Amino acid sequence: MEWLSRIEYPNWTGLVEILILAVIFYYILKFFRGTRGAAILTGFAILFATLIVITRLTNLQILNWLLQKLMLYLALALIVIFQPEIRRALARLGRQGIFLAGKARRAMADPIADAVLLLSSRKIGALIAIEREVGTKIIQDTGVELNSEVSAELLSSLFFPGAPLHDGGVIISEDRIAAAGCVFPLTQNEDVARNLGTRHRAAIGMTEESDTVVIVVSEETGAVSIAYNGRLKSGFDDPHLRRVLSTFLGRNGGFQRLGRRNKREDNGQLNFIFGDSGR
């Protein structure tokens, strides 16, 4: 038991540092849990930890030194891998809370649903993003600024074939139609079904870049789909669509503050749409 006497126990400052690092690592793991890069992060951590232990126990000093130097490049690689998640988190931190009248938000549910159902019945493709906490100004700049009142007539007319802006997506910000004809980023997720078209891939990509809720109408089948947090579900009928829109637009609240939502609330909304915890 002589090795126990060689252990140097930390003083009170060391304990404080250990506590701070533990809290930091806890929130980092909590933030990345359930994201697309979580498996990559876990694989990197297990691989490097295993190699360092093996090289240390077998006294392979050069390989051990090389692995420790590679840790810096590993950190840079993780920044690239988790770029969408990091950008979303920084956008939330930089965006101040906005108070919106619940009545104004609630009033948008019915015209959006009416427009979507009309387009669905005529098999006209549509792509409508509803902004939440993270701003979408960069995406809005790819289209034409409207700043118009949300109405079923205007929304449906924007997507009619032959209309100047029918090919792009519409972004609804606060209680206004902010822009139309916008170019949404396509998802790079290789796990997405190959039979999905460009419009559905753009919907998923938009929700990966921000926390928007995106409604998609297929021009082939007229099916209504909703994308949220990088996931897509199809087959929404009239009642289900209106319930989902009412939930996201704050039908049950007098005032809704954007910018402070915890993971439990987001998981509840994922459960409401997808029928599971969203993880």
Tell me what you see in this structure.
Helix content is 51%, strand content 16%. The radius of gyration is 24 Å and the shape is elongated. The longest helix has 21 residues, at 12-32. Helix 3 runs antiparallel to helix 4 (61-81), helix 7 runs parallel beside helix 9 and helix 7 (109-121) packs antiparallel against helix 11 (238-248). Strands 3-5-4-2-6-7-8 form a seven-stranded mixed beta sheet, sandwiched between helices. It has helices spanning 2-5, 12-32, 38-57, 61-81, 83-94, 102-106, 109-121, 137-140, 152-159, 198-209, 238-248, 263-274; strands spanning 98-101, 126-130, 144-149, 169-173, 176-182, 213-217, 224-228, 231-234, 255-258. It has 279 residues and is of the alpha+beta class. A hairpin with a 2-residue loop joins strand 7 (224-228) and strand 8. The chain has two domains: 10-81, no CATH class; 98-274, DNA integrity scanning protein, DisA, N-terminal domain (YojJ-like (1), CATH 3.40.1700.
Output the keywords.
single chain, 279 residues, alpha+beta, 2 domains, seven-stranded mixed beta sheet, 9 strands, 51% helix
